[in-house]
Amino acid sequence: MGKTTTTKDAQALFQSLRSAYVATPTNLKIIDVYIIFAAVTAVIQVVYMTIVGSFPFNSFLSGVLSCVGTAVLAVCLRIQVNKDNKEFKDLPPERAFADFVLCNLVLHLVIMNFLG
Amino acid sequence: MEEAVKASTVRNAFGNVLSIFILLLIGLLAFSIRLFSVIKYESVIHEFDPYFNYRVTQFLTKNGIYDFWNFFDDRTWYPLGRVVGGTLYPGLTLTAGTMWWVLNSLNIPLSVETVCVFTAPVFSAFASWATYLLTKEVKGIGAGLTAAALLSMVPSYISRSVAGSYDNEAVAIFALIITFYLYIKTLNTGSLFYATLNSIAYFYMVCSWGGYTFIINLIPMHVMLCIVTGRYSSRLYIAYAPLVVLGTLLAALVPVVGFNAVLTSEHFASFLVFIIIHVVALVYYIKGVLSPKMFKVAVTLVVTVGLVICCAVVAVLVALVASSPTKGWSGRSLSLLDPTYASKYIPIIASVSEHQPPTWPSYFMDINVLAFLVPAGIVACFLPLSDASSFVILYIVTSVYFSGVMVRLMLVFAPAACILSGIALSGAFGVFTQSIKYNLFGTELNPQINTGDSDAASVAAQSEEIKTEKKEESLKERPSRKIKKKEKESVEKSEKKVDKASKKSLHEKRFLALPLEASVLAIFLLVMLIAFYVVHCVWAAAEAYSAPSIVLTSRTNDGLHVFDDFREAYAWLSHNTEVDDKVASWWDYGYQTTAMANRTVLVDNNTWNNTHIATVGTAMSSPEKAAWEIFHSLDVKYVLVVFGGLVGYPSDDINKFLWMVRIGGGVFPHIKEADYLRDGQYRIDNQATPTMLNSLMYKLSYYRFVDSDGRGYDKVRRTEIGKKHFKLNFFEEVFTTHHWMVRIYKLNPPRNRIRVKTKKAKTKSSTTSSRSTLTKKKNPWH
Description:
Structural class of chain A: mainly alpha
Number of strands of chain A: 0
Domain STT3/PglB/AglB core (chain B): 580-639
GO molecular function, one term (chain B): metal ion binding
Oligomer: heterodimer
Helix content of chain A: over 70%
Low-confidence stretches of chain B: 446-509, 763-775
Helix content of chain B: 55-70%
Order of helices and strands of chain A: HHHH
Shape of chain B: globular
Radius of gyration of chain A: 19 Å
Number of helices of chain B: 35
Largest interface: A-B, 39 and 34 residues
Distance between the termini of chain A: 59 Å
Shape of chain A: flat
Number of helices of chain A: 4
Catalytic activity (chain B): a di-trans,poly-cis-dolichyl diphosphooligosaccharide + L-asparaginyl-[protein] = N(4)-(oligosaccharide-(1->4)-N-acetyl-beta-D-glucosaminyl-(1->4)-N-acetyl-beta-D-glucosaminyl)-L-asparaginyl-[protein] + a di-trans,poly-cis-dolichyl diphosphate + H(+)
Subcellular location (chain B): Endoplasmic reticulum membrane
Domain Oligosaccharyl transferase STT3 N-terminal (chain B): 17-420
Distance between the termini of chain B: 97 Å
Strand content of chain B: 5-15%
Mean pLDDT of chain A: 87
């Protein structure tokens, strides 16, 4: 009895989540796809490390942290570009994207130095 | 209306110019108050650690940066050597090297020593400006200027950044404050640009000082505090998440830190809070997207599933951490968390005088008046409580705790004290000056001082600036009353225009004014308080913290005596010994010996190898023959001891001797501390134990001491020595400085033949001795 209500609740939850997500604008969905891509790449690298071993450790660290880093920066971009977000309503999206590019440049410069 | 706007822009412009001028004066003050040691002594590098940094900077300027990264030092820790590139925090040396290179390429030929000596005062001026920026983000321009003025003079910071104190803290405090400023700026604006700058400033901090772990634990603590008190916002995420990723990468780039950035417990807090903030961000996102009923369903589902996963992950983590004996923390961090740890397990860390807990008077000596103003500042931070002010409160609470554990960390406490005192002082001045204006001119004023865009705020800021400028000028002894009177008149005129504008806003608080006499008296008393602070700071800088400790002075009836014995001894060593000769001494003098005398040493101030130091300590505590054996096995040629008994210099090796015994005894169990104490007391007179009287340190310190005054009276220990007439069989005195402060001995070469005491062998030995005298080989040691 309790099980069916929980499953029904879960289904209703997923339905409402999906309907809410469909309503988000396209540019935000593109950023979300990029975030998921970066996260999946990081997971693949971790799985590879557990199979093959962690030497050289700096390469592993820079690879994983570059994926995590771009995911985090993309989340920040998404926060700043989102029109529903009242704190950033007077920040032009071009400025947000320029900051995103700058931060990525610094991140990848460090990554390339650390990659060995 | 246009007139009012024009007047306010003129006022704002005037205020900006005035504040820039004040900041310049503050920078100049910070620089010049640290120059007392250069004036009283000379432009020389102080203490012990700065000599090593100076030597490394010399190497950097001579050989370039690639050789610097690969620098392997074979003139120290003989025979082990030291990988300098991998064990040095490069920030300070790279900064000084860059400044030297820039100046020389502009054809300003400053020597490396001059650049090194003056690095600290220059960076303290930068640190004051950084404090202004940080406090401006928290409370406003007036508080910023006051805090900057307080930091430029605070004795605790002066003690580690005088001209000549070329140590990590000189640039690290600047890096600390600017990192905090950029973090608060990102938190206030939510701009990713400042987040990038924050990570770069954090990288500079990691390069400069081991105290960067304070930042990487304080910022996650603050993020947790914000989340727990319900102040989560997307700006918090932008301020924190990129810092963790970029910061960890940048920290791993520095060779000294390397993989410790992800493997040690000092960084775990940042990763934990990284995960937590992602969970919280997701929760807020879903909450915004779903309806409340659905959100409740989501919460129940997630909590049941998530709790199971969480427990599994936490169990794995705990097992990993518990498997290491120190739970992943380094020795120094553990001694900070548990103050009794070092004295139980690592006597070297416990023996450093900077690592002892401070006494109550040292708080008053080091931050003086700020000790009363800090609680007022904490209260002022709560009205109103913002993200920035909660950060400052957390900073001061943690830094007060750590400063109570270790005297050296009073330095981290000083900027927090200055920020909070600046907030308190400027708030108090604001209230009193507003009361005076209200009482004199009887008009309704805008009571909210902290909002940056109201006209009354700029007027209030101007009045603060006038007050701070008054402080600066009273220090410089140029009170120009004409200028101040003119400013006051312009302030009055603009007052009336502001009042008409502010009367329109009805929703502001009723302003409660204090009586005129009370306000005037209060302002007078506050100014007196700051005057006492200034006097104390200048006194502390001139008398207490400007001693270079390599040159000592004393005033007697005959005038000023200068004790330059250390440099005399190092110069003797560099002129009268071979380049490859090894010198043994206690680790305090290692850096100075390698830098000034240019000889190889056994142990130095880096203290990375406890066993090697224990070997030297055992040698100093053993009788002559055993000590000779130990030193001979390490290829030592000369032994250096510091002796203060003739002149009364209290920091000599006999006073440090018990630490040598303890450290040696920690590794070699045949050295027992109790053997050197008579009834638990440390004595060197005729009641001393025979082990003490036979130890190498006693013999080397007091050899021929009785010849100096006939009685052998030790001025530091205030007694006559126990064993007065003795000979050295295995060492030979080669140099004693003018005031007997440094004594250098040479190891006797090993004997050619060994006497065997039996009857038969006696006759044999007489024949062999006669034969050996005929065919004596040339002794390579002579």
